[in-house]
User: Fold this.
Amino acid sequence: APSLPAGNEGAGTVGAVGEGVDPALVGRVVGFFGGEAYSQYRALPVQTILPMPEGTAAADAASCFVNPFTALGMVETMRMEGHTGLVHTAAASNLGQMLNRICLADGVPLVNVVRRPEQADMLRAQGAVYVCDSSADSFMADLTAALAETGATLAFDATGGGTLAGQILTAMEAAAVQRSIAAGGAYSRYGSDVFKQVYIYGGLDRSPTVLNRSFGFSWSLGGWLLTPFLGKVGGEGVARLGARVTAELTTTFASHYTDEVSLAGALQLDALQTYAKQATGQKFLVRPQA
Assistant:
């Protein structure tokens, strides 16, 4: 029967190399991206691996691609498209915490959107300046105030469905109008001319995406994925981002796991039920050799 290889990323020790590949890689721990990670052995093009510094544990490198490069990709996209600040939803996730650390280090204004008060507390304890809780009655007012202060006009939405993307665009428009009026600008029935972009990059909410059109005409809603982004920045860009990931693997880009499972254990019913919750703070490390 046909099979569907799974697992987007992983890490391990190089056992052998092909012709033309540096033999010094043998015995080296590397991270990799490119699928079929849920296996005990993997043959890969050398361009898809990320050699780790000496002494790096494979467990530390197991999540070195998807979340780190996605978080860096958000900041790179902001710069490439001429924005000056970011909004990120599901911001208490492992990826969201990485993005917060990147933005704090790089001086990028970041508005974090979370779903619960304890998530907001956690991010603030990690230094986050702007955190908006979507469960609060004051959410829209809080979001608009944060956007007015930061000037963020680019958002990455991990939820996908529901009204959140539209709420962000609405708050961006309200913040833009506030800034325009404060600067002596004139009101326009067509909305502000400030361009607002929301990228959906996840599907935590599988319901339809709902937009209540209250944000003028200068806006866009689209999708964003890591692999097309990597194609845009090219080999030099990927190498530059990779160098930062390896240098900051156990700090900025550290991942924490709540449990470890074997390949067989990953298919147990209790484990599958845990994955299905898509809960913040629950991340499993798969050890194929176990």
